[in-house]
Amino acid sequence: MGIKGSVFFLRVGRPARSSNRPGQIRAENSTGLNQSLTQIREFYGAFRWRSCMFAALKSRTTLSLALFAGLAACATAPTEEELAYRERVANESLLPATESEREEVRTQDPITQATFWGMEFERHPGDIEAATEFARSLRAIGSEQRAAEVASQALAMAPDNVELMEILGKALLTSGDPTAAANILRRASNAEPNNLSLLGALGVAYDQTGRHREAQNTYRRVIQEDPMNTAALSNLGLSLALTGDPEEAEIYLRRAITDPEAGARERQNLALVLSVQGKFDEAREVGASDLPDELVDANIDYFRAMLTPRARTYNNLRGTQN
Prior knowledge:
CATH topology of one domain: Serine Threonine Protein Phosphatase 5, Tetratricopeptide repeat
Number of strands: 0
CATH architecture of one domain: Alpha Horseshoe
CATH superfamily of one domain: Tetratricopeptide repeat domain
Shape: elongated
């Protein structure tokens, strides 16, 4: 489990073949209008075919020529109604969803949203809203790499879209490319300097690439605007611990856990910093609120080993939270 704020993303099956024989029409209402129309057309087509074959075979002169002529005469063009129906169906399948449909799907579960926006994006790759929502929903279901691909593709068409940049940066960060994430998040943050979510993600990207001082300055900017931002407080505390300042780290982490929305991650970060200072009893007490005793003891042993400066790396600190 990483630092809080490390930011965390249809092919319709072929219809079953009808069991009806040509010329057999089911009259149940449950089959639906479209199926009934199809069956009527099949019946009509089969009837016309049999009539043509009978006419051709009836003639005794040059069977092959008669058959060809009979079939050609029966192959009439579709009616205007049939052509209009085909055009209407084709157009409906290509039209984007209505605004009300798009609003409604936003209230659905993540997988439903990902499916809906994926279909919209497939039909209309140039639709920036569809691309943005598709990438966002992919992140919601954990498909970070695919989310990054979609967001990157959409950014080629809308290079100044900050929302897409944020989605791309966070997806890259979560999928393990902090250097690329830092570049895109910095660009997005320059465009929207007051976007605290972007700043927090940028700080995490800096920490993951070893630029801890820049990360700390970024977290402080977030805290200056939002003094009780739990993610920024926790991340700053952990970053300070990485640079050898566990005492100040403890101050920020204690502030973080006073937030009613603070969770296990913030408490485990505090337990880590207390352990780094040798406050093992207090660390055990804090850690025991979320973890079983055997895991708390294992973490304490791990923290003891981390008192060796060479072991203090970002990845090691993150690993204790898994």
